[in-house]
Amino acid sequence: MPYVRTVLGLLSGLAACGAVAFLGYCVYFDRKQRGDPAFKLRLREKRRAQQQKAEGRGAQLWDPAKNEKLQLFLQEVRMGELWLSRGEHRMEVEHLSNALLVCGQPQELLKVFKHTLPPKVFEMLLRKIPLICQVLL
Q1: At what angle do helices 89-102 and 106-116 cross, to 10 degrees?
Q2: I need a labelling partner for 113 at 20 to 30 A (CA). Which of 12, 64, 78, 90 fits?
Q3: Please, which residues have CB within 8 angstroms of residue 66's CB and are 6 or more apart in sequence?
Q4: Whole-model pTM?
Q5: CB-based contact 57:73 (threshold 8 Å)
C-alpha cells in the first residue's frame, strides 16, 4: 500500500507541475502577443471585416425586395389563417397549399401544420399534395 500512495503522490505532483507549466506558457504567450503592435492592428482589421460582413449579410437576408418568395409565403399563410378563422376550409387549404409550393422546406411545414391544423383540414391538405406536385412538374 505505501508503494501505491507514493506512485499516486508522484503522479499528482507531475500533474500539478504540468498545470503550472501550461499556465506559465499561457501567461508568457499572452504578454508577448499583447506587446506586439502589429497584433493590435491585425485584430482591429479582423474585427472590422467581421462586422462589415455581418452587416452586409443581415441586410441581404431581410431585404423585402429580394425576398419575394418569403413575402408570398407569409401572405399565403396569413390568408390560410384568415380563412380558418372564418370556417372556409376549402379556401384555407388552397392558400396553405400555395404556401407549401413556395416553401423551401415543405416537410417541416407539413409537420407544423399537422400539429396546428384541425385533423379534417390537414387531411384535405394531404389530399391536395398530389395536385401540388403536378403543378411543379
Answers
A1: 150
A2: 64
A3: 60
A4: 0.51
A5: no
What nine digits make up the cell of 88? 372556409
- Classify 87 in phi/psi space as left (phi over 0), alpha (psi -120 to 50) or beta: left
DSSP string, 35-67: H-HHHHHHHHHHHHHHHHHHHHHHHHHT-TTT-
d(CA 21, CA 41): 30
Q: What is the pLDDT of residues 60-109, one digit of tens each?
A: 555 555 578 888 888 999 999 998 889 888 898 899 988 888 887 888 88
Nearest Cα to Cα of residue 129 among 89, 90, 100: 100
Distance CA 94, CA 124 (A): 10
